Amino acid sequence: MSTAHTLETGGQVATAPVRHFISTGDHPRAVLDAIVDRAIANAGARSTALAGLSVAMLFFNSSLRTRSSFEVGIAQLGGHSTTLEVGAGVWNLETIDGAVMDADKPEHIVDAARVLSRYFDAICVRSFPKLKSLEDDLADPVISALRDHATVPVINLESCLWHPCQAMADVMTIRQRFGRTDGVKVALAWTPHIKALPTAVPNSFALAAAQFGCELTIVAPEGYDLPEAVTAQLGGATVSHDQSLLSDQDVVYAKSWGRLDRYGEPPADTLRDWILTPEKLGDAVFMHCMPLRRNVEATDAVLESPNNAAYDEAENRLHVQKEILVELIG
Amino acid sequence: MSTAHTLETGGQVATAPVRHFISTGDHPRAVLDAIVDRAIANAGARSTALAGLSVAMLFFNSSLRTRSSFEVGIAQLGGHSTTLEVGAGVWNLETIDGAVMDADKPEHIVDAARVLSRYFDAICVRSFPKLKSLEDDLADPVISALRDHATVPVINLESCLWHPCQAMADVMTIRQRFGRTDGVKVALAWTPHIKALPTAVPNSFALAAAQFGCELTIVAPEGYDLPEAVTAQLGGATVSHDQSLLSDQDVVYAKSWGRLDRYGEPPADTLRDWILTPEKLGDAVFMHCMPLRRNVEATDAVLESPNNAAYDEAENRLHVQKEILVELIG
Amino acid sequence: MSTAHTLETGGQVATAPVRHFISTGDHPRAVLDAIVDRAIANAGARSTALAGLSVAMLFFNSSLRTRSSFEVGIAQLGGHSTTLEVGAGVWNLETIDGAVMDADKPEHIVDAARVLSRYFDAICVRSFPKLKSLEDDLADPVISALRDHATVPVINLESCLWHPCQAMADVMTIRQRFGRTDGVKVALAWTPHIKALPTAVPNSFALAAAQFGCELTIVAPEGYDLPEAVTAQLGGATVSHDQSLLSDQDVVYAKSWGRLDRYGEPPADTLRDWILTPEKLGDAVFMHCMPLRRNVEATDAVLESPNNAAYDEAENRLHVQKEILVELIG
Description:
3 copies of one chain form a homotrimer. By secondary structure, chain A is α/β, with parallel strands linked by helices. Chain A has 2 domains: about 5-160 and about 315-330, Aspartate/ornithine carbamoyltransferase (Rossmann fold), CATH 3.40.50.1370; about 165-315, Aspartate/ornithine carbamoyltransferase (Rossmann fold). Chain A is built from 11 helices and 13 strands. Chain A has a 5-stranded parallel beta sheet with strand order 11-10-9-12-13, with helices on one face. In chain A, α8 (about 230) links the parallel β10 and β11. The longest helix of chain A is centred in the C-terminal third of the chain and has 20 residues, at about 310-330. Chains A and B meet through β4, β6 and α3 of A and α2 and α11 of B.
């Protein structure tokens, strides 16, 4: 419920702006590195860093890992969390500024942001894109409204554009496997899927890989580009349509996403030959944010291989998110 | 799980009846005043008053503020809460005495009340009216069954008839703004809405305003009366259809509710000119229980004004409910 | 998050297999007796046995008692729980090995089991039978997959076949009423219902009654048999279609279940004369796992009788489950 950190300086009290965690790109590498360092050092530790504090977990969409890892992590830090599911137990929220609210949404997100800020010390929110209008989704309306109107830190649990907690766990996993991130060869490998999925996970993984000095290659079928707002931040990433590059990588990060030029449409061509197999991967470490559709995105054999680091990534969500919370409100 | 407070008197042990918080009208002003005093004094404090205790939060309907503020408040008191959503994760509950239960409700509320009393130290319940039969709703069947069959304190999170925790937060907000409640001029101002809403909030606000010595005026269109069972308890409240009275008030408490003589029917006349604007309010403090439909009940300008005390009301839910819990089970 | 108990023996470290609680039949009577002993001794006690530990509560189906009693019990032991509802807030889970996952279930239970094991110290799961294929349900696919793939203890909150926590509370209730279980005459009495219910509760009650030395009689209409996989474990239980045997019992355990030979079909004959009444029960203690359909399974008079031990059973869920948790992870 504190609205900002106060810094006492020679008798004066200055108020620092509220710090959020919406994209890794909002923070310098030194801050991100320190979070990963502490996550590795403190993995499994219990503390009282969040004693007396409460965190809101606001879900517009489903979750298994995110919800579990945050609730457990907050408990391991001695804090309290409340999980709120919008539209199921919690009022539907209007996101349009100036709306005449005479339809099915009885509460405005501006008001929800302000009210939640009165109860909670941080607000974590998951809000996927609606996949109807690319322009609307690029504005990331829910997380933007919370950032603008909440008076406590906002943590992104996956928005239209970014999934920074996942990317931090991914980077931590690379650090664990290779002892470093700089110069590690990572491919972001497109996989088949029955739906046109959002780009938040590939956006954040690609951005974090670039920030942490990885050598990034994006391997995807023609037409499967990431948003320009993202690729503009990636520096010298290679883009290729050639799956044979995968076996030459240290890490293959598998993920499906939809075409931006046929936004939200179910895939016309299922491109099932883009499924990942042990043969395509060679010795590369396999990573995936999960949930994963077995035998569509990757074969059972990939999942059962010792090169599969997806469970470590999932575990690292817990460790790294605890340090993000401590960084912002601990 | 204690079924009643025990009072030790000269070697004898007497059992006091279980105390509930169903309407402010069940408690003398001195008790209510003391709760508000403590809520103001202890705002933001952490304690162990509920250490080792568990509170059930039973929702038949949606909630944002109520759920958040209770869960956070219980945590700040060192207690534990379990949130149960009836019909979504929890069995549907039959409320009719003697029913042959061969339809869609597998559990009787009498049995749920008794069982929850074995697990929890208090039961908080939200159950809105069904808005089909005024007579049925005036009997307030869910909260009445819990009161009659639970053996631990029952706290009303908004029933068909009353929303006493909201009213206590409202009174606290008036105290904060004016340093007193006696003689403060408050108007309960009807607002437009797309639905016929329940009267629980205006009932409880009007009753609490009367109990706390406010000078109450109800300003509503013709035909929009509150239930006689409520107005009979209000003493000398003024009733008017004249919106020009609003600018002459210290406080304008905005709220929509439906006609009792066309019970539950969508409004035939939307009466959009009853929307609240800065012009109508003048210098009066604006209050609202939220959620609020912007630009239907009140304009954005009202919400963005420094006279808007609705966020304070929401925050005060947290503070005052903690003291209600401590009063009953702390 | 510990994957197994480690036993230090003379400088060597051996890893014991993970212990689950899936059926009472998996554990010798001495272990079960000790759990009941401790549940009686520790009823109502608070401790820090689970301090720093987190328990997942994974629900594929609704619950009131199970969810409440586990959440409260874990809190009374100083632990933390996270309640996850599959398909409502949590991804739907595929249970078929080797499935090509291109339908409506985005995550495989094998992966969920492994991921939850990274976050939680135990996984409690409720997964009712689908009641479409007896053969499929007898394989108990969800709990079996969790047992096989989780690396932390799995506790059964009612599967297709078993409800062991209920049976432990039942045995505890018999112990409280009679001071013993050996030689107590208990009837498992079939009751009418509008649906074909699963056999998990009667299976587990019958098995536990046999394990604890009760004299068991199953009284049900012709055609209402329990699965052979269960009855094979019951030793010398009597089976009868004669309701007049009930009044000769110490305990009548009421429960409805569906015909196995018309699996999942709504009852053709409602057999309403199998409703339990005070006359049929005589002096026998009435037990039921709840929820109970009043005036369909048993009359209001049975429920309101002092011989009704169903509320004690519900309360004992709390006490006995705490000791099961302490046994496995405390």
